[in-house]
Amino acid sequence: xxxxxxxxxxxxxxxxxxxxxxxxxxxxxxxxxxxxxxxxxxxxxxxxxxxxxxxxxxxxxxxxxxxxxxxxxxxxxxxxxxxxxxxxxxxxxxxxxxxxxxxxxxxxxxxxxxxxxxxxxxxxxxxxxxxxxxxxxxxxxxxxxxxxxxxxxxxxxxxxxxxxxxxxxxxxxxxxxxxxxxxxxxxxxxxxxxxxxxxxxxxxxxxxxxxxxxxxxxxxxxxxxxxxxxxxxxxxxxxxxxxxxxxxxxxxxxxxxxxxxxxxxxxxxxxxxxxxxxxxxxxxxxxxxxxxxxxxxxxxxxxxxxxxxxxxxxxxxxxxxxxxxxxxxxxxxxxxxxxxxxxxxxxxxxxxxxxxxxxxxxxxxxxxxxxxxxxxxxxxxxxxxxxxxxxxxxxxxxxxxxxxxxxxxxxxxxxxxxxxxxxxxxxxxxxxxxxxxxxxxxxxxxxxxxxxxxxxxxxxxxxxxxxxxxxxxxxxxxxxxx
Length: 482
Hints:
By secondary structure, the protein is mostly beta strands. It has four helices and 41 strands.
């Protein structure tokens, strides 16, 4: 959930909570297992099945449990692959019924566009049985206006996620960007929406490392209150302001060592003070720091902290890797695959990646760069995480080191506060303070909306936005936070 601060450009500031609770509109992202299927019902051609990626909004319309009705808006799907690229846009409805049974009904009205066609398609679910607990949505839909020569169907699997931010282990070249922005390093923070959230130099610039190194890499990462980015780097470096920085230290993009690696492990009372590394991190709402290490640490004769375990700076093992992988069917069960990245969603589900690939007897080979869920499914393959960047080599597993998820289902926080507002032509400069982790400026011609983004989702506490402040009618702006 988010909090908003509203203001009218050029008139002053209006502070108010969103009149429509944010939980009534939730952005969804398609996960692994979503497909667009093209069938000929009377000919012998092979079925065309293409992986599908994209987003949609779920908007609450009627809430009378056990019957809940939603509108599906801003549907924007695209097929993956270099050939027959299809684009789907449209809207629909989604009904959920949960009492003695878990039932659902989904209808979609979309336009399907590709190199050969541009036609409307109407879909409805093939079975009313909902196999996944809400808020996950899994539905198989069949086109109702198809022909014998061509009928489409959709296999949808989606989670309430707006953006996934991540880093890769290996650098790559993007084929849909111009030089030099097409060079993506393993230290850059990326978004599944196809943008570089932060270049590595922006993350490490204040650490005082001299001479300035183009890329220090990026291992663990979390975004905390007021947009502070916490992270670790893969190797030790010397800072002229902070001294030696270990690869296991938790750092801040604001130029500080937040916690030494030895301090993170201190509550376990390890026998050695050696740096154990820092591969994954998340700061919980109460301040507890959950993390993983790169090398095993022996605590006593009967306790070893594994590199695949989720640990707490309060001296407890939050979750062992065996527990984290309990819903997978591992071909090899007596091995520690490591833990490279993690993010705990608002409902408690854990998304993560491992350091080493493994084989699941149900899902098949799983790469180190794939994003997984502790519920036992693949959230996104590495190729899908990177699809919006169109890497030059599609066969490569580029790894998955850092992870942060922006979701509309997060708990509300107090409204942010604008501290400076300057308008010049159609440019608006804003500075603010707020307890959110990330922020976005939106605008509308009426307070009731519809609201459109002026900026990308930001970690900064200021921005310069291109907004239509010269329009003849009043223009409203709001600062959104997650």
